[in-house]
């Protein structure tokens, strides 16, 4: 359901679709024909996937005692098993809830970050981040199973891209259709997940994060783009020359968000921002809260940084 702001005009209802139907003179073409709103991007419905990711991520990096990496054949077998499990869950859920395999396959180009796109590009960053976070979680699981760190990064990223790519291909057989841009965003997220896990020195310096505000607009926060921001955080404590200075408490942010795309009565806005914030991951880790610190590598709490914002052209 897409919500609209209630104003003091006659015949206005909270539900925009109903308002269009009953008040064609307010929302429609000049002849009064109703024009349904563009729905919020629900093609990326990731509640079950994100719960799976959270379990994997919070396990942190492997702590099992591995005297030597497992055999390559066993690595491939376990990778295929995890990937098949993810694909199976998505297939069952998609048939039950997303109308998978009820339509002839179709595809579309949704654009990237343009003003006239469905979500101003926030949905593409959602795809990128979720594939990235899934890669990190699956790689951690593989290292726990005694994959070498290098192989865990590779197979975890490939498994993540396969699982999330299959979800996008499944949309081709539903009302949504496969999006080329979503597949590219998934690929970028998988690569980012690989490099961050493969190179610990990079992980000490850089995080990709998702910020969710405290006032959600809908039950499914994974597609609540009106309440989300996506950012890159540069952690100064990851640099040897700064690790023992006061600057270890500081991190630099570069982020993006879009507003108004799910609200028919509001102006669409896209915003880039730079920020300076508290390095909460370092603070919690130094005080022994490793799982909380790991979680904060992926989640950015609101009101913990000072932003300087730039509205993009309308």
Protein architecture, described:
By secondary structure, the protein is of the alpha+beta class. The protein has two domains: 1-37, no CATH class; 46-311, no CATH class. It contains nine helices and seven strands. Strands 3-4-5-6-7 form a five-stranded antiparallel sheet. It has a two-stranded parallel ribbon with strand order 1-2. Helix 3 runs parallel beside helix 5, helix 4 (122-144) runs parallel beside helix 6 and helix 5 runs antiparallel to helix 6. It is flat and about 55 Å long.
The number of helical segments is 9
Strand content: 5-15%
Query: What is the averaged pLDDT score?
Result: 80
Strand order of the largest sheet: 3-4-5-6-7
CA-CA gap between termini: 26 Å
Radius of gyration: 22 Å
Q: Helical amount among residues, as a percent range?
A: 40-55%
Q: Please identify the structural class as seen in this structure.
A: alpha+beta
The description of the largest β-sheet is: 5 strands, antiparallel
pLDDT below 50 for ≥5 consecutive residues: which ranges? Answer: 1-44
Helices and strands, in order, run as HHHEHHEHHEEEEHHE
Number of structural domains: 2
